[in-house]
Amino acid sequence: MRTIEKFTLKIGNILIKPVYKVYEKWLWLQIKRGPFPQHIAIIPDGNRRWAKRIGAEPTVGHLYGYEKFKEVLNWIWEIGIPYVTIYAMSSENCVYRSKRERENLFNLVRKGLNELLNVGDIHEKKVRVKVFGNLSLVPEDIVVLARKIEEATREYRNHQLNIALCYGGRQEIVDAVKKVVMDILSGKIKLEHINEDLFSKYLYTDDCPDPDLIIRTSGEERISNFLLWQSAYSELYFCEAFWPEFRKIDFWRAIRSYQLRERRFGR
Question: Nearest to residue 166, comparing CAs of 102, 93, 114?
Fold first, then answer.
């Protein structure tokens, strides 16, 4: 079967469908017994470069990337992974991208949140949705929509979807420090009470475990200010495919890589 894998890697995106399906099945047989990560975080990189490669505008890449989000979420939920965090937009995206590109991205966010709120899957699967980041950079109607879906799903416990929007890991830590200082000054906590567990409760992700696996597409090998505190012991997987062309076999390979690693958590 290793021959199949080498052949698959060689022909890449021109896979003959039957061969692809055989390879996908073979990968699933390798990983299906687990263990699976409890929390996957994704840096979906490469939308613009993918669009440029096919001679299209960046907006086309973002649209295809948005559709890929929905597909990958279903892969994650199909195998019962309870927590997923998507790096939807970085704080840098929200400041330095052109006005036109930001507006296009925010339109996709609106579309996505409306779909989550009104399409049955999120409610059938009992997915709690949480949106966090520097929401002062986000149009007010999107913030209202985000709070609406958070309220509508707050009692769900089967899965949790975190959407990091205009998010920066350093800013998250700064915000947490401010909250800690305020609680010390108000007498809610004492200085000697502060430890890693307590500090984690002040982060945006206070109600979910740290990510076991972080996947980044497009071949870039960095985490780009994403979940800096939470990723201390995360397993990192870097995939060459641009996000719009990320396939189930790429996802299965990431899971397989995770399963083959010995997690020591610094010990």
Answer: 93
CA distance 208 to 133: 16
What is the pTM (predicted TM-score) of this model? 0.91
The number of CA neighbours under 13 Å toward the Cβ of 262 is: 3
pLDDT in tens, 51-82: 999 999 999 999 999 999 999 999 999 999 99
Pairwise CA distance, residues 250 & 12, whole Å: 11
Q: What are phi and psi of 201, to 5 degrees?
A: -70, -15
Q: How far is CA 137 from CA 106, 110, 143, in A?
A: 11, 14, 10
Q: Is 45 a catalytic residue?
A: yes
Q: How many CB atoms lie within 10 A of CB 235?
A: 18
| Candidates 45, 104, 162, 210; catalytic one | 45
| C-alpha–C-alpha distance, residues 224 and 238, integer Å | 13
Q: Can you say whether the dihedral through the CA atoms of 236, 240, 242, 243 is positive or negative? A: negative
CATH of 36-260, one of 3.40.1180.10, 1.10.10.10, 3.40.50.700, 3.30.70.2860: 3.40.1180.10
From 171, 193, 169, select the one nearest 183 (Cα to Cα): 193
207 in active site: no
List 13, 74, 93, 121, catalytic entry: 93
pLDDT by residue (tens digit) across 128-146?
999 999 999 999 999 999 9
